[in-house]
């Protein structure tokens, strides 16, 4: 895409090009100043500062001094941190797989010829539009230990006799927050994958049908390979933002019961902002970076391999 | 752009689906689709129905069917709007979101134009770095940012949010606008350059009018992201009267009151409505914003 943008510049007449080249870099610099100011002051600098703080004993209202890897030693030896890492990985893995499976299935359904397609597609995106905190509050009420509408429905159907304690039991709470996260993430994945599906030429399916391909074979050998690049990008975003999720957990369980749903992000908030231990909190959030880099690398190299297999595209 | 490509594909795919009989389509398409839609929409239905239920029906699932109400009341919404600071929080949210969106759009338009059209040395590298900035989640930034915000003297002011939200918005909207600017024929700019227009005149008089769909997409998406933002607003704002809706509602209504659900659900409903209305008007722009930023 970078190359295609460069091409029009190359077609300019030499005289004009000469004139622009003299001040092009300065002009570009001035145009970049506002965006770069924001990104350097409030993104790059804090990112570096976060890594630095994780090597200090900073507290709220007191700048710290360098203490080496003491915070990491403390954090890594902390049982609560180990649990948070497990919870985060489990939450990310299960929710991402569920979001991908349901999202892809929904995208394939939406790509069929259905009535009121535009309205259906618009309605499906609503969970993505409504602020997460506000829909999490709705889930909080749906998962109420006494007055849950799900418990009520299951009781009416005669499936259970007592109320389900959705957020009070460790594993129930884990599955409940995973459900809420999946619910929130499916529309985004479905709609972006649908956009990818719509670019697949129907003639490929017609040819495959004539050759006697089953629906599964068509999916496996046409849809999936052509969709891989967009799947890689969408799932990278999904994994990154599930891994660093904060809002949903903060509202639904606040890490409870007894730390069963504590994620690394909520733990770093509790340690640094509520507990005042900026250094330790920064160490916890810095510890997320290797995981994030790993996820980006996996999808990046996956994407490269696919691009190479498909020739140029 | 996704809308224009979707139509031919949809029409053509109809040619294949005549092979499916109607009962088969009901089982394989309509039933699963209906089930998924019910699950996706039920929380909103439940939110809305709780917000208009009389207090005494809220916690009584036996005598009244909880799934609907025959005696709707606006008591919760009235109390929310007239007895709490809710309108003020709504105003705060709007103010912060609009200010951050405008700042981000200005910065992104300039940056995207410079990367795509001025093509200074290293423009590709900067474009790549901006994409990487998109991948930095707020959850790993909020601790150092809170100390930075404190150093800059912005703590517990709305500027803390107005100035930090663009770090989330600029990478996204720059990337989206780069895609839009590339679709504008370069010949138009060449003509203007030969006629003696400056780069800034070209940007404001030729490129921006042609990129209005892209600006709307980026703008409403930025608004949605700001409205949704939670962790910065929770960390940087302490005073109750400066909070945004998502933070205020979580901290203000979650006391031990048994009947708080009515006001909580009313708050969630009223807080979501502006975005849903905005969304209803600009569905296609939303979809192209979402898919456009991912496609590149």
Question: How is this structure best described in words?
Answer:
Chain A has one domain (78-309): MetI-like fold (Orthogonal Bundle), CATH 1.10.3720.10. Chain A is 75% helix and 0% strand. Chain A has helices at residues 2-10, 14-53, 70-77, 79-111, 117-124, 126-129, 132-142, 149-156, 170-197, 202-210, 215-243, 247-252, 264-274, 278-286, 288-309. Chain B has helices at residues 2-17, 22-51, 55-58, 75-83, 86-118, 123-134, 142-151, 158-182, 186-194, 199-210, 212-228, 231-236, 245-252, 260-281, 283-295. In chain B, α11 crosses α15. With 296 residues, chain B is mainly α. Helices cover 76% and strands 0% of the residues of chain B. Chain B folds into two domains: 15-79, no CATH class; 84-295, Orthogonal Bundle (MetI-like fold). Chains A and B meet through α1, α2, α4, α5 and α6 of A and α1, α2, α5, α6 and α7 of B.
């Amino acid at each position: 895409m970078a190359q295609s943008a460069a091409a029009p510049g190359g077609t300019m007449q030499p005289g004009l090009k000469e004139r622009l080249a003299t001040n092009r870099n300065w002009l570009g610099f001035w145009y970049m100043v506002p965006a770069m100011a924001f990104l350097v002051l409030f993104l790059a600098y804090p990112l570096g500062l976060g890594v630095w703080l994780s090597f200090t004993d900073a507290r709220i209202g007191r700048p710290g001094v360098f203490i080496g890897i003491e915070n990491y030693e403390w954090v890594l030896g902390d049982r609560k941190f180990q649990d948070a890492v497990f919870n985060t990985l489990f939450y990310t893995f299960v929710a991402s797989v569920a979001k991908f499976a349901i999202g892809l299935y929904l995208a394939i359904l939406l790509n069929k010829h259905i009535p009121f397609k535009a309205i259906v597609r618009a309605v499906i995106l609503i969970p993505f539009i409504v602020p997460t905190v506000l829909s999490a509050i709705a889930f909080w009420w749906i998962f109420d230990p006494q007055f849950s509408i799900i418990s009520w429905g299951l009781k009416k159907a005669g499936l259970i006799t007592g109320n389900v304690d959705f957020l009070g039991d460790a594993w129930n709470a884990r599955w409940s927050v995973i459900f809420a996260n999946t619910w929130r993430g499916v529309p985004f994945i479905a709609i972006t994958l649908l956009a990818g599906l719509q670019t697949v030429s129907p003639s490929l399916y017609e040819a495959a049908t004539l050759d006697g391909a089953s629906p599964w074979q068509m999916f496996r050998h046409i849809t999936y390979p052509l969709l891989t690049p967009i799947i890689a990008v969408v799932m990278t975003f999904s994994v990154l933002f599930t891994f660093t999720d904060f809002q949903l957990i903060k509202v639904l369980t606040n890490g409870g019961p007894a730390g069963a749903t504590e994620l690394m992000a909520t733990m770093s908030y509790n340690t640094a902002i509520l507990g005042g231990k900026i250094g330790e909190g920064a160490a916890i959030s810095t510890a997320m970076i290797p995981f994030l880099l790993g996820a980006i690398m996996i999808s990046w190299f996956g994407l490269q391999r696919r691009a190479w297999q498909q020739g140029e595209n | 752009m996704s809308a224009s490509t979707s139509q031919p594909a949809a029409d053509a795919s109809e040619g294949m689906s005549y092979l499916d009989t109607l009962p088969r389509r009901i089982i394989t398409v309509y039933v699963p689709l209906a089930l998924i839609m019910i699950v996706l929409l039920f929380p909103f239905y439940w939110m809305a129905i709780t917000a208009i239920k009389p207090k005494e029906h809220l916690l009584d699932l036996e005598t009244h069917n909880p799934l609907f109400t025959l005696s709707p009341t606006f008591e919760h919404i009235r109390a929310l709007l007239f007895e709490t600071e809710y309108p003020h929080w709504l105003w705060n949210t709007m103010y912060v979101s609009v200010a951050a969106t405008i700042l981000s759009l200005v910065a992104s338009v300039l940056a995207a134009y410079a990367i795509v059209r001025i093509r200074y040395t290293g423009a590709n590298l900067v474009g790549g770095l901006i994409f990487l900035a998109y991948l930095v989640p707020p959850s790993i930034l909020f601790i150092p940012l809170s100390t930075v915000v404190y150093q800059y003297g912005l703590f517990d002011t709305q500027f803390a949010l107005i100035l930090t939200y663009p770090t989330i918005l600029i990478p996204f909207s720059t990337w989206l606008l780069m895609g839009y600017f590339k679709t504008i024929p370069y010949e138009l700019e060449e003509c203007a350059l030969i006629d003696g227009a400056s780069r800034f005149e070209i940007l404001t008089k030729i490129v921006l009018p042609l990129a209005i769909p892209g600006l709307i997409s980026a703008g409403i998406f930025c608004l949605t992201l700001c409205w949704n933002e939670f962790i910065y607003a929770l960390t940087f704002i302490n005073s109750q009267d400066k909070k945004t809706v998502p933070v205020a509602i979580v901290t203000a209504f979650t006391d031990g009151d048994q009947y708080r659900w009515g006001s909580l659900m009313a708050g969630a409903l009223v807080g979501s409505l502006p975005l849903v209305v905005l969304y209803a008007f600009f569905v296609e722009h939303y979809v192209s914003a979402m898919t456009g930023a991912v496609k590149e």
